[in-house]
Structure formats: C-alpha cells, structure tokens
Amino acid sequence: MNYIGSKFKLSSWLDEEIRKVVGNDLSDKVFCDIFAGTGIVGRTFKPHVKKVIANDLEYYSYVLNRNYIGNHEKIKNQEELIEELNNLPLKRDLSIKIIAGAEEVIDSILKMKMAKELILFAKK
Q1: For the chain, what are the domain ranges?
Q2: 3 state SS for 39-108
Q3: In the predicted model, is pLDDT for residue 94 greater than 70?
Q4: 34 forms bridges with which residues in the sheet?
Q5: Which of 27, 54, 103, 115 is the right S-S partner for 36, CB 3.0 to 4.6 Å?
Q6: End-to-end CA distance of the chain, in Å?
Q7: What pTM value is reported for the model?
Q8: How far apart are CA 12 and CA 18, in angstroms?
Q9: Of 23, 15, 16, 31, which Cα lies nearest the Cα of 69?
C-alpha cells in the first residue's frame, strides 16, 4: 500500500544510515518502527533483524503490520489454496449486502463530516 506520506522512498536511505551507526550485522537487533503506517520500514528490516516491533495509532496499520511483520512462515501449499479460493462459487447476495452496508457507512461519514463543518462554521 503506497500513499502520499509513505516512507517507501526513504527505506533504503534509512537502512544505510542505521547500518552506519549500529554496523552491518543486524541479526541480533530489535528494530522498532514507530509511526509504522503501512509498515514499509519494518518490512525493509524484517529479513535482517531478530525482531520488528511496529507501533502506530491507526487500526489499519495494526492490520497491515500484523500481516506483513507478524507472519513469518511460508504457506506450504499456497498455490493450491489460491486455486481453491479462485474456484469458490460467487455469493451474489452477500456481495450486494456488503456493498449496501458500505453505502450506509459512507453516507453516515458524510453526514458526520457535514455536521462537524456546520459546528465549526457556527463557532466562527
């Protein structure tokens, strides 16, 4: 996941600078990725360090980092599992319910945003 504000372009520079300070052998080091966001910096160091600790306030960051950093074993039969998932029959009703639910959530968010803007306007 790349977005404006991602540290992707900084990750190789961070790797170089950190190695200048602590040395090239990072195998016994614990890397702490504060303000982890999408976890790109932690993922850069994951293959080289003993442990990565990722921290961020946002829940999306927890989900991404739990996957990217928390998972450490290869899935042995991943091709078979992907094939099985790709061959599952579609459940049209479920998709429609999810889309309808998303529309309701988006509508609620827009209403809350409008209410917030009205409150801020009223305070001026």
Answers
A1: 1-73, 90-124
A2: CHHHHHHCCCCCEEEEECCCHHHHHHHHHHCCCCCCCCCHHHHHHHHHCCCCCHHHHHHHHHHHHHHHHH
A3: no
A4: 55
A5: 54
A6: 38
A7: 0.58
A8: 10
A9: 31
